Amino acid sequence: MSIEVSRVSKLFGDFVALDDVSVSIPTGQLTALLGPSGGGKSTLLRIIAGLEQADTGRIDIEGRDATRLPARKRNVGFVFQHYAAFKHLSVARNVAFGLEIRKTPKDQTADRVHELLKLVHLEQFADRLPSQLSGGQRQRMALARALAIQPSVLLLDEPFGALDAKVRKELRDWLRRLHDEIPVTTVFVTHDQEEALEVADEIVVINNGRIEQVGSPDELYDAPANYFVMSFLGPVTHLDGKLVRPHDVEIHTQAPVPVAGDTVAGGATGGAQQTAAAGPAVEGTVVRTVRVGFEARVEVAVAGADGADQSVEAVLTRAEARTLGLAPGAKVWLRQAPGSISIDAPAAAEPRELVAAV
Amino acid sequence: MAKTYAFRAIVIVYLGLLVAWPVSLVAKATFANGFDALATALSDPSVVFALKLTVIVAVQAVILNTIFGVGISLLLVRYEFRGKRLLSSLLDLPLSVSPIVVGLALVLVYGGRGDWFGPGLEANGIQIIFATPGIVLATAFVALPLVIREVVPVLTELGTDEEQAAMSLGASPVQTFRRITLPAIKWAVVYGVVLTLARSLGEFGAVKIVSGNFEGKTQTATLLVEQKYQDFQQPTAYATAFLLALVSVACIVVVSFLRPDHSSSKAQSKGLS
Fold first, then answer.
1. Which residue in A3, A17, A207, B172 could disulfide with A43, CB within 3.0 to 4.6 Å?
2. Cβ–Cβ gap B168/A102 under 8 Å
3. Pairing of strands A331-336, A282-292
4. Which CATH code of 3.10.180.10, 1.10.3720.10, 1.10.220.30, 3.40.605.10 fits the domain covering B42-272?
5. ipTM for this model
6. Å between A89 CA and nearest CA of chain B
């Protein structure tokens, strides 16, 4: 394991940023720290980098106790959300900074800088000032600067957060390819579940200063440990006492024939989730349909256990919705799609609130 | 547009009556007989001594205030501690307190007949009051906030990201300061230094009290101007005053041309009007 975080806690005044967090970051992989704003993920990253001190706990980087090491001795590359470009230095001098500090011979530095600028496609901008670059270019420069010192780990704090959607997507793909080329252990912080699912080998979900789940993108998506993880990775809806994903809700215009077989409890990791066999269908009435591009979102009112109507959301393709001829007022039967996963709805929360929260 | 011109005219007239015209009259009085007054003044040993002393004092005060000014600015912006606001308001004290009070206060603390350090220092042969160190202290005190008030907003604006980036790349605190922080606050420091220099050259009240005003020993240029004026040597007084004003104006002109945002702010104001 490249980075070992053991029982780290951090308070800011009364605010608990990290509460007894332990996690191992695997060597040579791209790991995402995923969670909502204020959940503690950036604090954890900054503690690993040495830019922040943990109140209690221990950090090991490549087998070396780094808990009390200052940032400059940890040999980590850090990339900031707002680039932190050295404004008075040219792009090449920015990238060379760490090498100059290490008193690397001039010709070696020049070679390495050239090589890195080529890697991040900025070789023609070497003599420009950061202010003459776009946001995406500045962030690539910052990445080259962090890689120049050949760090044992590369840490990125919401690296694409300040960029517009299109550039963000490009840089995300590019980061993935770059990592495949230079497999340095990389940890990046994001609040964008799509970014994490798409780019990361491993995802650490952090909320309220605690780790909710650690796993590969598939593990997290297929076997969410709890309601929070499931809802953070995408929309969820409430069907028949269970939480399911809206696109896993089947809509039938006639009562489907129940297929024999029970719900199978416990998934691959033995979590709270269940994989559905084709169970009984629930009757309801279409309240409204919204079309967004190729998707059709259907809201269905279902009689709840206490007699009050519950709202269930289902997502199908435009073509499916057209074939079924769904319109407000239509009578439909809802069923969880066979093979899809669900978890029991938390007892405390009102189903209606759960849907609203997503 | 008409409104802009009206405002501009008002400001120009106000500044003209208050600043430009009186100062230019000093120049006019200096050159009333060509270069005679300047020549006479510069051949007077007491004038030459006073000018030299003024420069020596100003340079020392500027060095002191630059080092402590940048240090205090870093402390105020980069660190959280109890009493920070109190410290911050204490720093404005030299601007609000009359220089005479500053002079008297320094005499009480360092004077040979005071109750504090003065007698002890004098017993060890260190003379502060009625000597150059006292003049430097008084000047540094009066000009203390000028560097700080220039540097603090720039440091605040700068933020800590760049410094942290430098640290993560292996730079020590000293390297980070020299390579990252200092270049970023360079112009604020230069501007603060120039203001401090101008203020130091012109300090009068505090210096008059602590120096004792001994001609050829502790008499600075401003004190000399007053004395020459009262001794009916107006041409020499005007000539010395002119030299003092010249240096201060030159400082400000040089900086306004050196400042990198000079041209861009001009372009911006053009775009706005």
1. A17
2. no
3. antiparallel
4. 1.10.3720.10
5. 0.81
6. 9
